[in-house]
Amino acid sequence: MSKRIFISGASSGIGEHLAYIYSKRGAIIGLAARRKEKLNTVADKCRELGGNAYVYQVDAKDRLTAKNAADEFMSKTDGIDMVIANAGIGGHDDLMSGDSTAINNIIETNVLGVTNTLIPFIPTMKEQQNGILVNISSVASFIRAPYHGGYAGAKINIRLMADSWRLTLSKYNIQVTTICPGFIETAMTAEIKKMPFLLPVETAVEKIVNAIDRGKKTFVFPWQMKMMIPLLRIMPDKLLRMFD
User: Fold this and answer.
1) C-alpha 50, offset from chain centre
2) E strands, 131-190, where?
């Protein structure tokens, strides 16, 4: 039976390329994002690669739209095997503006976008007594990130939230996997100047899929960034301020 997989933030980057990998396995993919034209292009390629795809124009911050997309996908596929909450944005906190709009948008997209994406599928997974929830966090969730406190704080939030959910949902045979990438070559990182250990998106998604297949609880990569986390945690504030 084809795996039924729903992916938010599927119009580009990690979400798009995860859809391609799973399409090669013959999966039925629910593609959700704001940009419908981009989604349609991704869906066409998924079908060319051997999968099937349904497109849902969804702003992950919109709870009702996200739930409607989840319900419609499960109705079409008679259940769900995996949900990947990938929708997210970066950006500066814009602290000196006196306006919280920018940081609020980062927090809402990266936190509410996860809960809005994953939670509608959980009752069905409980009834099925199986399923996989995947949460795309970040290496930033382990370190103090100057200028990006909203982003880092949101990624910490969803990582710890997933740790809690894992304890709650394991008795229903629901796997909860958190992915914490370093710098990945996507449109989201295109304007960042300093990106140590940058990985091509194709390489990154292969590692992500392998971690999910192995049932990893939390997967931090690349290994160089994972090794640096203890050092970054004790690095003096003066040195951290050099990173923008």
Assistant:
1) 23
2) 131-136, 174-181, 184-185
Q: CA 179, 110, 12 angle in degrees (round to 5)?
A: 70
**Token output for 82:** 């995996």
Domain span at 107: 4-240
Q: What is the pTM of this model?
A: 0.91
pLDDT tens digits for range 109-135? 999 999 999 999 999 999 999 999 999
Closest CA to 109 of 83, 84, 140, 87: 87
Do 59 and 9 form a contact (C-beta atoms < 8 A)?
Answer: no
Residue 124, classed as helix, strand or coil, is: helix
Beta strands, E only, 91-200? 131-136, 174-181, 184-185, 199-200
What is the helix (H) or strand (E) element at residue 220, kind and residue range?
Answer: strand 218-221
The answer to whether the peptide bond before residue 222 is cis (omega within 30 degrees of 0) is yes
CB-based contact 86:18 (threshold 8 Å) = yes
What total of structural domains would you count in the chain?
Answer: 1
pLDDT at residue 138 in the model: 94
Contact by Cβ (8 Å): 137, 158: yes
What's 54's domain CATH number? 3.40.50.720
Across the strands, what pairs with 210?
none
Closest CA to 122 of 201, 176, 77, 185: 176
